[in-house]
Predict the 3D structure of the following.
Amino acid sequence: MRLGDPTALWLMLAALVALAGLLYGAWQRRRTAAALGDHAVLVPLVGEVSVRRRRVRLVLWASAALLLAVAALRPQWGAHTELARHRGLDVVFALDVSRSMLARDVSPDRLSRSKLEIGSLVDQFAGNRIGLIAFAGSAFVQCPLTTDVSAVKMFLNALVPDAVPQGGTALAKALAVADRLFAASSARTADGSRQHGQVLVVITDGEDHEGDVAEIAGRLKKRGIVTYAIGVGSEEGEPIPQIDSSGQVTGYLKDSAGRPVLTRLTPATLSALAEAAGGQVLVGPRIDENLLTVAADIDKLEKSEFESRLVVQYRERFQWPLGFGLAVLLAAVLLRERKRVRGGA
């Protein structure tokens, strides 16, 4: 036998305390009755109390309290195994962590804002598997696909531009890493193709320094991976700040001629990525609104089974002590302690 809710053990203590209170009350009543006067004189006035009934009623109250406390513990015995199937989506966020994402045309900066909005969004995806890829001049899996939302947030908060040693922005490498991540963690259908229910969300300012996006994006489309390209930043251009270890801006990145390097949102790159992948591009000024749009679209996608395992299910037996406890409680309420007084002067 096991307990489904052992935290309710305090109710057992409460039942024992209540029983002690009832015993103390009975003792006090006996003392009070003895102090009031002659028993033969009091009986015609208030009726004679049956000591036997009072004791029975006390036992009933105590039994009801204990039975209800046991029911709250949810006793379980008898078990069977069943196959638990978990259906959901595989959602991978590929986040640009290059130096250009430190630009402050989005408050507080492009990277921090993106991390904040992704963190808010993953809560809505609880129950699905979520992964995280960081990319700049190279790309790597920051967090493998998992249903642990808190782990995703922990890895997300750890992302800084220094996390990727190679500078620049290589979208193709991020897409290739995402494809390998999906391939390693997805099941296959009877015809050998990958199951659907896989989503890639790319968040970047669109400054791609290496090209070759179309080929790998086309591969994602062929394999049924739904792709969204989210643009962050402004097209007007913003200098790239240089930040010290305390988070203070010490200057701005400059070119060989000493002029500040401006970083701009490049919608053309994102549009090319979305077109080749058969996906959708969102480059409006509000990344939060764009991600909410993506979340609404993802919620409509067909979910696939990504996990199945045998689990032990224990049978709940709280109904028995609960039923007996309520019956005993009713008997305690209905039982009269006083005998009826017959006759009169």
Observations:
- The mean pLDDT is 81.
